Amino acid sequence: MTAPFLPFTRPSIDEETIAEVANVLRSGWITSGPKVLAFEAALSEYCGGRPVRVFNSGTATLEVALRLAGVGAGDTVITTPLTWVATANVILEVGATPVLVDVDPITRNIDLDLLEAAITPRTKAIIQVDLAGLSVDRDRLYAIAGKHTLRVIEDAAQSFGASWNGKPIGHSFGDDRDFVSFSFHANKNLTTSEGGALVLPADIDTGLCERLRLQGVRRFPDGGMDVDVLGGKFNLTDISATIGLGQMKHLAAFTARRRELARRYFARLDPSLGLELPVADFTNCNWHMFQILLPAGADRGKLVAAMKEQGIGVGVHYPALHLFSLYRALGFREGDFPQAERIGARTVTLPLFPSMQDSDIDRVCETLTASLPEIA
Fold first, then answer.
1. Active site residue 188
2. Do 279 and 105 form a contact (C-beta atoms < 8 A)?
3. 70, 88, 276, 295: which could form a disulfide with 98 (CB 3.0–4.6 Å)?
């Protein structure tokens, strides 16, 4: 009997949440309403009481954070080349210039040893990324940012449920002038199907954030309105917020199960295969993804095809973004960021999601072991 297809990720949504979504649909209030407010309140509590506003994507939260931080034409923003391209795209969207810093070969996050050298008088902010849910060293990051009076916009799209030194990501690690951007896309550890959240600094006007989220409109008690800033259409629906509320009840269990599955990968993957494994962090990391690096010279395309033929889905997260045509047109070239290029060319994301069975991990490892000799 053929085993069912195993995707690299799958959301876990319980029947109670499905029933609550049906109730929202029956209520007639399906766009932003009371469920959005309840979800924001729950997220604020999770983030230590900080103000939180939800959006229809994590990308929107990054763009709005840049606008709230006053980033625009003539400014530069430092980020990593090893991330989903949205991280850098939003910098271009607000008219600023992305400055890329190579990644640490072990953590695969932005190399903090190289960060300070990239700072110039034009630098306005830093967007770091917690790749695969492994936290960037917040202590060092905020020491550098504080020294140069820079805003930090944490791209925590992959690290909801992760922590740094025991403090959940979403809490403030600096002087409470930091933004934190979460994504709740379907493949994230907590999903709203599509969506995101922005944790706001103490000195930011939440009303301005809300106006940027919805066309810049300011409403008055007498029914009048005004538009005093150019906003977008970024609001989250009550349908999505209801899914998020249901997911939050299971976040701790989801994270614990992901850590168990990651441990099993470490136990089952054969060290002699020549794979580079991620950092074995079972305290701070939320194990959003389990990423291996193939041996040098291995044909990744053949491996992806071989795994799919055996009913196993794997992903590629991420190619080094400076090699995309859009960024080459800005002057970036192959060889600029060798670690990001090396990792981006060899990375493979193995299946990892809470409803997986231990036997699924064994199946992935066995199939991978059998396939590697064929792709060398």
1. yes
2. no
3. 88
- What is the pLDDT at residue 2? 79
Q: Yes or no: say if 161 and 171 are a contact pair by the CB < 8 Å rule.
A: no
Q: Which residue(s) pair with 126 in the sheet?
A: 78, 152
Question: Is the Cβ–Cβ distance between 354 and 12 less than 8 Å?
Answer: yes
- The pLDDT of residue 376 is 74
Residue among 35, 147, 167, 188 flagged as catalytic: 188
User: Whole domain around residue 260: which residue ranges?
Assistant: 251-375
pLDDT score at 374: 83
SS3 readout for 206-236? HHHHHHHHECCEEECCCCCEEECCCCCECCC
| 274 and 329 assigned to the same domain | yes
The length of the chain in residues reads 376
Q: According to the model, what pLDDT value does residue 1 have? A: 54
The span from the CA of 57 to the CA of 40, in Å, is 14
Domain harbouring 87, CATH code: 3.40.640.10
Task: Give the domain-ending residue among 248, 263, 294.
Answer: 248
What residues have CB less than 8 Å from 306, skipping those under 6 apart? Answer: 367, 371, 374, 375
The SS3 of residue 38 is: helix
339, 239 Cβ separation under 8 angstroms: no
Q: Are 80 and 319 in contact (CB under 8 A)?
A: no
Q: Are residues 34 and 21 in the same domain?
A: yes
**Could you report the average pLDDT of every consecutive run of 10 residues in the chain (376 residues)?**
90 98 97 98 98 98 98 98 98 98 98 98 98 98 97 98 97 94 98 98 97 97 96 98 98 98 97 95 98 96 97 97 98 98 98 98 97 86
Structure tokens that stand for 271 in this block: 């060290």
